[in-house]
Amino acid sequence: MLALGPVDARIAAGEFVVIVGPSGCGKSTLLRLVAGFAPPTEGAVLVDGAPVAGPGPDRGVVFQQPRLFPWLNVRRNVEFGLRTTGVPKAERKGRSAELLELVGLGDAAARRPYELSGGMQQRAAIARALAPDPAILLMDEPFAALDALTRERLQEEIRRIWQATGKTVLFVTHSVDEAVFLGTRILVLSRRPGRIALDRSSELPRAADPHTHPSFLTLREEVAAAVRDAAA
């Protein structure tokens, strides 16, 4: 059974693109194709004009679960990819310290994952994904397993991190509110096999809280209607 139909989208550097749609429409499949975890059965995925042939350091991935190594402390979890690629110890230490400050875990470097809350673990996972300095950050429902308050806080954090780093972000979610809050561009996929049912750029300001903008509710309703139609 096909997970995705023909999908044709060009994503510019620095965009925060959110993919939303009904369950089973191929959102995560599309993200895995970009990550290089699986090849497309037809067509191609290109990054900077080159076909994606597998995972690479130019694409960092954050999953729904943090997937931290429980036997390593937070700093060593963040440094893991750098260590396996031969980055010198002093450089690893400086990079991990910088990223842990960026995600608000500067005082938790020596702690083990089991000593952290779910939200803090996901912050560590984001820092680990950013450690190799990827051009693209791929996020597959990273806040879905968190309570509502923690989810809201991390939404604000990922907006701040995106603004600070200028990364290109491709973010999968089931939440229309999350999509409208985060995305500079929103792609709505139809039910399986997923196709692009709506490709909508967002003009909401990113320097302030988008919830306060008069157009927030209008855009939210437009995206919600597109999701409802896509699921029909």
Q: Which value, in Å, is the CA radius of gyration?
A: 18 Å
CATH H-level superfamily title of the largest domain: P-loop containing nucleotide triphosphate hydrolases
Task: Output the structural class.
Answer: alpha/beta
CATH topology of the largest domain: Rossmann fold
Number of helices: 7
Second CATH tier, the architecture of the largest domain: 3-Layer(aba) Sandwich
The major pleated sheet works out as: 6 strands, mixed
Q: What is the CATH top level name of the largest domain?
A: Alpha Beta
Number-wise, the strands total: 8
Name the shape in a single word.
globular
Give the strand order, joined by hyphens, for the main sheet: 4-5-6-1-7-8
Keywords: ATP-binding, Nucleotide-binding, Transport
GO molecular function: ATP binding
Pfam family, one: ABC_tran
Organism: Actinocorallia libanotica
